[in-house]
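Bench log. Compound arrived from synthesis this morning; before running ITC I wanted a structural hypothesis for how flavin-adenine dinucleotide sits in the protein. Inputs:
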Amino acid sequence: MVDTLEHDILIVGGGGAGLRAAIAAAEESPDIDIAMVSKVYPMRSHTVSAEGGAAAVIKSNDSLEDHFRDTISGSDWLADQDVVEAFVREAPDEMVQIERWGCPWSRESDGSVAVRPFGGMSIERTWFAADKTGFHMLHTLFQTSLKYTAIKRYDEWFVTRLLVENGRCQGVVAIELLSGQVRAIRARAVIVCTGGGGRIFQFTTNAAIKTGDGMGMAYMAGVPLKDMEFVQYHPTGLPGTGILITEAARGEGGVLLNNKGERYLQAHDLGEALDVNDERHPQLRAMELGPRDRLSQAFMKEEQKGNVFRDSEGSYVHLDVQHLGEKKIEAKIPFVRELAKNYGGVDPVYEPIKVRPVVHYMMGGIDTDIDAATKLPGLYAAGECACVSLNGANRLGSNSLTELLVFGARAGRNASIWAREHPEFDSAALEQQASAEQERIADQYINNHDGKERIATLRTELQETMEQGCGIYRDEVSMKATTEKLAEIKARFRSGIQLDDHSLSFNTELTSALELEFMIEIAEAVAHSALERKESRGSHQRTDYVERDDEAYLKHSLAVHSEGGPQINYRDVAITKWPPEARVYGRDH
Ligand SMILES: Cc1cc2nc3c(=O)[nH]c(=O)nc-3n(C[C@H](O)[C@H](O)[C@H](O)COP(=O)(O)OP(=O)(O)OC[C@H]3O[C@@H](n4cnc5c(N)ncnc54)[C@H](O)[C@@H]3O)c2cc1C
């Protein structure tokens, strides 16, 4: 028998999207009862580590149309234009709202909200709280959520699967990590806000908890994963650790230099190098403020030409902010200095920082519509785990934090309406499913003493093959090899995992095994979606199909789970007003 708890709405994830959804649900229906389950204490969610800022139109020289156009061209025309229109329209109110809840946005000297330039944005529109934006946003959302007594939290509970009966999602199964007890939590609507899965790659800015659990759960419950082939490399991570040096460093005027001391981006169709002291600097949407996919690709080309530095941690280029001076560095990007000193071994006031591209963000995720609903009734998703189709083939930096607010709020509102209208449960069937899940966890892991495969070995092999086959540049041969390797890893995983820890309380080896199971599933979705897309677009660059092919691939990919591996289908992109054009940066923009 599994204990069963019950709530109207259940949110999986206590990051920015989950908290915003919880607040919106509580505001929409004051009498509704909301549960939030998180595998870590909410303030430890990855949102806390976001540095650079969140984009929304606020200044009189900016416009919703410009934010729309930057996002569409950034996406290489793969974003749904109705979604982008709604996003840019709702973004400013969300940003003002979170300030009223207490988010300390940095200000100009006249008291107005300060905005900074960010990659791929044609004008300064990124709001920031120094370079600890995610920290302040998450604190604000968390403390605001505490005001609502309707929100009950289950901190340090690990969700293992969705409960689906009668064609409706009706809850989850979760392990209370303190006791190791498996519980069923029934809910009339479930919102998945579990974040990204960058940990399927070896070298990433993503926290260790970003293992794509929610994507895996929804996928195994029959919901497609959309546009999974699009994985964002951020151009400036610290070699060795992968720790992010925020784009704000370039937004404030930092430059990238190769081993010849050249601002090499001018050789890659990203505009001209202006003198760093030129009044026009930074030149927007050009050079260091080009989009992330282009900058990461330029690094690879410089590497091929032998124009990068090398040491024991691999190849790198220099990110130089010395000309900004200590005062500006301390005022605008103090965290960059702290990270560079502690993890890069240099003080950027006096020396350049070593950087290289690093896996940062997944554009793809759980397929949702503009209302954050999935095709499984009662199941919603928002934030990085979801693909509402805002980011297309390449996300613009600083659109993600705002996405958490806009689509987190939409998910919360819509889920609460659905929950009100669907009060009934298929209780007996749900209980049976939860018992079956409890048995599976016991048989496959806790009571299994015969497993031979080690978690760390399989995980490392998975990360290596993803890096080899699904990195910045891809081709048929390498991707095929990755799909085959992943099938082998999956078979070995299923043959039995060897756990050393068979105890119940805080069994982190068990949660690592459950995470690895999700990682294998989503890695397969990435590799198969990438193999099938025979064109180059945004972050998906193939050396064997170098052009964008709108005729065949102006489409979202949809990976559908099956026993034999992912089946890849396609759906048209919503184009409301701006048909595809060439994607140009650095010239008159
Ligand atoms: C270093 C870094 C810097 C960034 N900087 C910026 C920036 O400046 N601007 C910008 O726009 N974007 C930035 N991003 C991207 C952005 O921060 C993320 O996309 C966003 O914060 C994700 O928020 P989320 O709410 O979707 O998920 P997260 O914040 O990752 O939260 C996920 C939640 O799900 C829970 N969870 C996961 N699996 C389970 C499970 N099995 N059971 C129970 N709970 C589970 C976790 O406990 C957590 O609470 C950055 C990302 C990184 C990594």
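What the model suggests: The chain has three domains: 3-51+133-233+360-430, 235-359, 437-572. DSSP finds 15 helices and 22 strands in the chain.
ITC booked for Thursday regardless.
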